[in-house]
């Protein structure tokens, strides 16, 4: 499918847009040593939680295309284990140039460094707007604010982009295409790992029109990181999220009830399984809870690319994985669009929507 390119509408009239109070400006304002109370997430964060350092599975993407059958079989097995035991893995040898990943992160930094008036032109209220700049998660309903500014840009099936920073369009078009390719190839391996045909998920979820969104998250240094939260525990909508980040840690993945620190490796995609993979696999591959902590030293930047089914696809457990006697369907069907609207207009909550559609 040929992607159509649209640009964010740049207003020429003086249309009123309220300030959104992004944390970048707050963090850069001088002389502040304590955070406003609306950012106070917890008084005991970190101390109560069990944090462990465990080795996160690594998937060698290049082996998915291996002509040696044993190598492909081995990586499919690795994928099955990573999806079932962790819902999170690092992908190496993915073929996307490191320079492209770095330039994409630089473009995101340049966006957050634009003047506030310019960023506010993307401060849409509609949660499904193709381009949306904001802070926290959903400030109109968030009871506690999160120490995070974000930019969401929809890149497939229609490609949207920003007129500035210069080169954002060109780099994000290339980055989104290359990342989508990696996601679709991983999903072919995952399809096989579930005992389905290689292209089963691709066809059933209509991934030629997959819904891909880039979400850039900026977490500026925070004077009280022990009581603030960048993003609280949540799972992602869609099938797979592919994340890259700068070299500042903060992401934690929930594994067997413990929070595991993710130590970012350069030139690697951090991949997590998301809600719609849980639904279609009838609960075999769970969407994984993760969260982002903040620190008081350096700005953390992450860029998540979410990959979901075609928006109108009604996602249900696949019939091949359901057996009315021993393994009945665990989730009701819902279109991906309805699911996302419900998720994004609400406040962030661990897996609340999945629980609502559970049979
Ligand atoms: O910043 C991170 O590492 C996590 C971002 C994230 O979970 C998300 O955008 O959904
Ligand atoms: Fe996430």
Explain this structure:
This protein is an alpha+beta fold and 359 residues long. The chain has one domain: Jelly Rolls (Sandwich), CATH 2.60.120.330. The chain has nine helices and 17 strands. The strands form four sheets. The protein has an eight-stranded mixed beta sheet. A five-stranded mixed beta sheet has the order 2-12-11-14-9, with no helix packed on it. Helix 2 packs across helix 5 and helix 3 crosses helix 5. The radius of gyration is 20 Å and the shape is globular. The two termini are 36 Å apart. 40% of the residues are buried. The N terminus is likely disordered. The site of 2-oxoglutaric acid (AKG) has 11 residues, from strand 8, strand 10, strand 14 and strand 15.
Question: What is the fold's blueprint, element by element?
Answer:
Elements: E1 5-7, H1 23-28, E2 51-52, E3 58-60, H2 69-85, E4 88-92, H3 98-112, H4 116-120, E5 131-135, E6 149-156, E7 159-161, H5 168-193, H6 200-204, E8 211-219, E9 231-234, E10 240-245, E11 251-255, E12 258-261, E13 269-273, H7 275-280, E14 290-292, E15 300-308, E16 314-315, E17 334-335, H8 336-345, H9 352-357
Parallel strand pairs: 1-7, 2-12, 3-4
Antiparallel strand pairs: 4-13, 5-6, 6-8, 8-15, 9-14, 10-13, 10-15, 11-12, 11-14, 16-17
Helix pairs in contact: 2-5, 3-5
The structure holds 2-oxoglutaric acid (AKG) and fe (ii) ion.
